[in-house]
TrEMBL record:
It is found in: Cytoplasm. Keywords: Coiled coil, Cytoplasm, GTP-binding, Hydrolase, Nucleotide-binding, Ribonucleoprotein, RNA-binding, Signal recognition particle. Part of the signal recognition particle protein translocation system, which is composed of SRP and FtsY. It catalyses: GTP + H2O = GDP + phosphate + H(+). The lineage of its organism: Bacteria, Bacillati, Bacillota, Clostridia, Peptostreptococcales. Involved in targeting and insertion of nascent membrane proteins into the cytoplasmic membrane. Binds to the hydrophobic signal sequence of the ribosome-nascent chain (RNC) as it emerges from the ribosomes. The SRP-RNC complex is then targeted to the cytoplasmic membrane where it interacts with the SRP receptor FtsY. Residues 269-282 form the SRP54-type proteins GTP-binding domain. One of its GO terms (cellular component) is signal recognition particle. Belongs to the GTP-binding SRP family. SRP54 subfamily. This is Signal recognition particle protein. It comes from Romboutsia hominis.
Length: 296
């Protein structure tokens, strides 16, 4: 189960309150200490944890909670609300351009799941009646183009490529023209990643951005990398500017640190989550549902 470690610990801390009936301020503080440890162990950003605990604690020691007949339920409700708010409150959708094609640029480090997710996203929108085109701009990673073609074939979505000799900027521009000619109303550009963030990568992404003017730049990050994912998101956002995040490999993430920190640290919403290797393992992200899932 995703975020299993975090769920167990949070539920453990809150269950103790349930057995108490009326609560004292000390009971709440003790529980919050456990919640804090659970969040830190889950690799949630330190400052995010501090702010979160402060907010929850302030709300919990209020008259209304302490004097209610079911104070533990109140505390759980507050934790749930604050977790939801931490992850962005409401689901954030991809903005579809009123003038097609909508252009989505996928960015991220190598191995994060960019190519797979480009396909998944194409499949998601195809099911909604769109006519996507995948554009293969990852000319550096061996087999990335072939991989996108295989994904496209499986989903019956066309893939535009110019091999690996042309520059990614030219491929992106030509892909866009191809989409307009062929009535594709959604263009998903799979850009190149690197093992680490470097200037050459960022310069290339900036050039693609300024040439094709994407409606959405989506950053793909691997949730299992915890705070590293958050740092990557901060860097990409500062240097390139991103509109949203897709968090992959949540199916294998027992901790949850990236999911709980990224929005608070970068102010950018998580738009989708990757829940497996199969091409339909992509879900829109709902902060409220995720909070309830964590609290069980
Ligand atoms: P890229 O280098 O960023 O383009 O990464 P790939 O798309 O090649 O993905 C790297 C690996 O992660 C592949 O083995 C994918 O099957 C796997 N992967 C991608 N997304 C998910 C996901 O949501 N869950 C799981 N379990 N694996 C994923």
């Amino acid at each position: 189960m995703i975020f299993e470690g975090l769920s167990d610990k949070l539920q453990g801390a809150l269950d103790k309150l349930k057995s108490k009936g009326k609560l004292t301020e000390k009971d709440v503080k003790d529980a919050m200490r456990e919640v804090k440890l659970a969040l830190l162990e889950a690799d949630v950003n330190f400052k995010v944890v501090k702010d979160f605990i402060k907010k929850v604690q302030e709300r919990c020691v209020g008259q209304e909670v302490m004097q209610s007949l079911t104070p533990a339920q109140h505390v759980i409700k507050i934790v749930n609300e604050e977790l939801t708010s931490l992850m962005g409150d409401v689901a954030s959708k991809i903005v579809i351009s009123p003038k097609p094609p909508t252009i989505i640029m996928m960015v991220g480090l190598q191995g994060a799941g960019k190519t797979t997710t480009s396909g998944k996203l194409g499949g998601y929108f195809k099911k909604q009646g769109k006519k996507p085109l995948l554009v293969a701009c990852d000319v550096y990673r061996p087999a990335a183009i072939k991989q996108l073609q295989v994904v496209g074939e499986k989903l019956d979505i066309p893939v535009f490529n110019m091999g690996d000799k042309e520059s990614p900027v030219n491929i992106a521009k030509a892909g866009l023209s191809h989409a307009i000619k062929n009535n594709n109303d959604l263009v998903i550009i799979d850009t190149a990643g690197r093992l680490h963030i470097d200037e050459a990568l960022m310069d290339e992404l900036k050039s693609i951005k300024s040439e094709v003017k994407p409606h959405e730049i989506l950053l793909v990050v691997d949730s299992m990398t915890g705070q590293d994912a958050v740092n990557v998101a901060e860097s990409f956002n500062e240097t390139l500017g991103v509109d949203g995040v897709i968090l992959t490999k949540l199916d294998g993430d027992t901790r949850g640190g990236a999911a709980l920190s990224i929005r608070a640290v970068t102010q950018k919403p998580i738009k989708f989550i990757g829940m497996g290797e199969k091409l339909d393992d992509l879900e829109p992200f709902h902060p409220d549902r995720m909070a309830s899932r964590i609290l069980g």
